[in-house]
C-alpha cells in the first residue's frame, strides 16, 4: 500500500499470525544472522525481520483495540484471546533472534549504523525472558484481563440510571456537593462490593511476578520491573530521590493550593469529593464531540504544518474512537500499527474538561509515533514511557493558545485548573510509585497490610486528603481503581518525570514559541532511538533527577498560580 493512499481503519487488513510459520521465518533470519560474513548482511536481515515483527505487532494491536472498543463483542474477544495466547511464544521466538544479534561479531558496525540504544535494548530484553517463564507470562496476561473485564463491566446505579466507571465521572465534579459525594459513594460501593475479587487478582499478580523474577535469578520483581520498562539509565535510587524532592518541594505548595481552593469554593474544610476548582463547577468543553474534533483540526493546522497533516490523517482515516459508550473499556490510550505507519487514539469523552486534555494528550503520543515513522528500527518507533509522556503532556501545553476554541468564556478557568491539577498530580504519582516499590519488596504482604501501607503513604504524599465518612477509601483500598498498578507495574513515576519536563516546555513556549516547538518536534522524531536521559538532553531540557530541577520548575509554576486570582476568572 502506498502511504499516500487514504484507507480507513476499518479497511486495514487484519489476520491471525500463525506461530509455527512465524517461527520458521524467524529461524531463517537467525541462520542468516549467525552465518553472516559481513555487517551489511546482518543489517539487511535485521531490517527484514523488523518487517515481520511490524506485521505481528500491528495485528496484535488491532485485536486488542477492537476488544477495547467493545468488550461484549465475542468475535473481537476471540481475536484478542488468540493474540494474548500466542504472546509468550512470540516472545520466545523474538528472544532467539535477539540472542543471535547479541552474539554478533559485528556489534561495532551495528552500533555505527543505528547507535547503541538498539543493542542495549536487546541486552536488557534478554534479561527479562526465559522459556521457563512462558506459562507464568500467560497467567499474568489472564489476570490482567480479569481486571479489565471486571472494571469495564461495572454497572453502577446512580439517580435511577446505570453507569460505567467513566460514565459516573461527570458527577464527581458536579457543582452540587451532595451530588459529588453521593456519586463517589456509588463508585466506592462498587469497589467495596468487588474489593475481595480485586484483592485476589492483585495478590495473585504480585506473587506471580515475584516468582517470575526469582525464576530469572532476581531477588524480587523490582529490578525486573525496571527492565521491562526499558529503563537503562536510572534505577530505584534515582526514583526514590525524585520522590523525596516531591515531598519536600511540591507537597507544601499543594497544601497552599488547597487552602486557596477552600477560599474559592467558600468551604471551611475540603473533603476528597471537593475535587472541583470553581463554585459554579469546572469548565466544560462547549459543543458536541464532532464539533470539538473540527475545532481540534483547525487548531492543529494553525499550530504547525506537520501537526495539520497529522491530524487530517487521523480524521480522514478514522483513527480515533473518542466518546464513552456502554461496553467500552475505560481510560484513554494511543496505540499503533507499525506495518501501516499509523497511530490510533482511544478515549472516553464524558463531557468534562478532561475530554480536551485527553485529546491533546493522546494526540501528543500519536504525533510522536507518526513523526518517528522514518526511524529505521521498529524498536525506535516508541521511546520508553517516561519519555513518551513528555510528548503527550507537552502537547497539552503547546495547544494552550487555542483553548478558547473549546472553552470559550471558561478558557482562563480551564488553564488555572490544568496547571494546578498538573502540579497537584505529582504527589499522587509519587505515592502510587512508592506503594508499588513496597508491594514488590514485600510480596508476602496480605491485602490488609497493603491497604495499611497505602494509608501510611497517603499521609506522607497527600496529607490533606479527607474521605469524610466514606468507608471504602478509608480502609486504604482506593489504589484498586488505578489500573496501572495491575496492568503495568512501575508505570507511574513516568508521568511525574514527564510532567517536570512538560512544565519546562510550557515555560519555554511562553518565551520563544518557535524554538520550543522545534525542540519538541526534534524530540518527537527521535522516537525511541535514545534512552530517557539522552532524549531529555536532545530536547534541551533539564533532567528531572538533577537536584534543583524540580524545585526551580515548581517555583515558576507556583508563581504563575499565585499571580492569578481565581475569583476574578
Ligand atoms: Zn500518556
Rg, rounded, reads 24 Å
Net shape: globular
Helix/strand/pairing category: mainly alpha
* Spatial order of the strands forming the largest sheet: 3-5-4
Q: Output mean pLDDT.
A: 96
Query: Which percent range fits the helix content?
Result: 55-70%
Strand fraction equals under 5%
List SSEs in N-to-C order.
HHHHHHEEHHHHHHHHEEEHHHHHHHHHHH
Strand runs, count: 5
- Tally of separate helices: 25
Distance between the termini: 51 Å
Report the uncertain regions: none
- What kind of sheet is the major sheet? 3 strands, mixed
Which cofactors or ions or other ligands sit in this model?
A: zinc ion
Please characterize this protein's 3D structure.
This protein has 25 helices and 5 strands. It has helices at 19-34, 39-69, 74-102, 107-114, 117-126, 134-152, 165-172, 177-193, 195-215, 221-228, 236-249, 251-265, 289-303, 305-316, 354-371, 385-398, 404-407, 411-441, 447-461, 471-474, 483-487, 493-511, 513-526, 532-538, 549-562; strands at 156-158, 161-163, 320-323, 333-337, 342-349. The longest helix has 31 residues, at 39-69. The N and C termini lie far apart (51 Å). Residues 361, 365, 389, 392 line the site of zinc ion.
Amino acid at each position: 500500500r502506498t502511504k499516500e493512499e487514504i484507507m480507513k481503519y476499518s479497511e486495514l487488513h487484519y489476520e491471525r499470525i500463525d506461530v509455527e510459520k512465524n517461527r520458521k521465518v524467524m529461524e531463517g533470519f537467525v541462520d542468516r544472522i549467525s552465518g553472516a560474513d559481513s555487517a551489511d548482511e546482518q543489517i539487511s536481515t535485521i531490517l527484514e525481520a523488523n518487517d515481520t515483527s511490524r506485521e505481528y505487532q500491528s495485528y496484535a494491536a488491532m485485536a486488542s483495540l477492537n476488544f477495547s472498543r467493545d468488550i461484549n463483542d465475542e468475535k473481537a474477544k476471540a481475536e484478542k484471546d488468540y493474540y494474548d495466547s500466542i504472546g509468550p511464544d512470540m516472545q520466545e521466538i523474538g528472544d532467539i533472534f535477539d540472542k543471535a544479534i547479541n552474539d554478533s561479531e559485528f556489534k561495532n558496525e551495528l552500533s555505527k549504523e543505528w547507535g547503541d540504544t538498539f543493542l542495549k535494548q536487546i541486552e536488557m530484553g534478554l534479561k527479562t525472558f526465559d522459556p521457563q517463564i512462558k506459562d507464568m507470562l500467560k497467567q499474568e496476561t489472564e489476570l490482567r484481563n480479569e481486571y479489565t473485564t471486571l472494571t469495564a463491566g461495572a454497572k453502577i446505579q446512580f439517580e435511577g440510571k446505570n453507569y460505567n466507571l467513566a460514565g459516573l465521572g461527570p458527577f464527581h465534579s458536579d457543582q452540587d456537593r451532595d451530588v459529588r459525594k453521593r456519586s463517589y459513594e456509588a463508585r466506592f460501593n462498587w469497589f467495596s462490593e468487588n474489593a475481595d475479587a480485586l484483592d485476589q487478582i492483585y495478590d495473585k499478580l504480585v506473587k506471580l511476578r515475584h516468582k517470575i523474577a526469582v525464576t530469572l535469578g532476581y531477588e524480587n520483581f523490582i529490578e525486573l520491573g525496571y527492565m521491562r520498562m526499558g529503563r537503562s539509565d536510572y534505577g530505584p535510587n534515582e526514583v526514590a530521590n525524585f520522590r523525596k524532592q516531591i515531598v519536600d518541594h511540591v507537597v507544601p505548595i499543594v497544601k497552599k493550593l488547597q487552602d486557596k481552593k477552600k477560599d474559592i469554593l467558600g468551604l471551611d474544610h475540603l473533603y476528597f469529593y471537593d475535587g472541583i476548582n470553581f463554585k459554579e463547577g469546572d469548565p466544560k468543553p462547549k459543543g458536541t464531540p464532532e464539533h470539538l474534533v473540527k475545532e481540534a483540526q483547525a487548531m492543529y493546522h494553525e499550530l504547525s504544518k506537520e501537526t495539520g497533516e497529522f491530524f487530517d490523517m487521523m480524521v480522514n482515516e478514522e483513527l480515533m474512537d473518542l466518546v464513552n459508550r456502554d461496553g467500552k473499556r475505560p481510560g484513554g490510550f494511543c496505540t499503533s500499527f507499525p506495518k501501516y505507519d499509523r497511530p490510533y487514539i482511544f478515549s472516553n469523552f464524558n463531557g468534562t474538561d478532561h475530554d480536551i486534555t485527553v485529546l491533546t494528550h493522546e494526540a501528543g503520543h500519536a504525533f510522536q509515533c507518526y513523526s518517528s515513522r522514518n526511524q529505521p528500527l521498529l524498536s525506535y518507533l516508541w521511546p520508553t514511557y517516561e519519555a513518551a509522556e513528555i510528548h503527550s503532556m507537552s502537547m497539552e501545553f503547546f495547544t494552550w493558545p487555542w483553548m478558547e476554541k473549546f472553552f470559550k468564556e471558561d478558557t482562563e478557568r480551564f488553564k488555572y485548573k490544568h496547571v494546578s491539577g498538573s502540579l497537584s498530580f505529582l504527589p499522587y504519582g509519587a505515592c502510587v510509585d512508592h506503594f508499588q516499590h513496597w508491594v514488590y519488596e514485600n510480596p508476602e504482604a496480605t491485602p490488609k497490610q497493603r491497604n495499611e501501607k497505602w494509608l501510611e503513604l497517603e499521609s506522607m504524599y497527600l496529607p490533606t486528603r479527607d474521605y469524610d465518612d466514606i468507608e471504602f477509601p478509608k480502609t486504604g483500598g482506593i489504589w484498586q481503581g488505578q489500573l496501572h498498578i495491575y496492568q503495568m507495574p512501575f508505570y507511574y513515576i513516568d508521568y511525574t518525570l514527564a510532567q517536570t519536563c512538560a512544565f519546562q516546555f510550557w515555560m519555554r513556549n511562553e518565551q520563544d514559541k518557535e524554538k520550543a516547538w522545534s525542540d519538541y518536534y526534534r524530540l518527537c522524531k527521535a522516537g525511541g532511538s535514545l534512552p530517557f536521559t539522552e532524549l531529555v538532553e536532545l530536547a534541551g531540557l533539564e533532567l528531572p533527577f538533577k537536584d534543583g530541577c524540580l524545585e526551580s520548575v515548581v517555583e515558576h509554576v507556583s508563581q504563575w498560580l499565585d499571580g492569578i486570582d481565581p475569583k476574578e476568572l
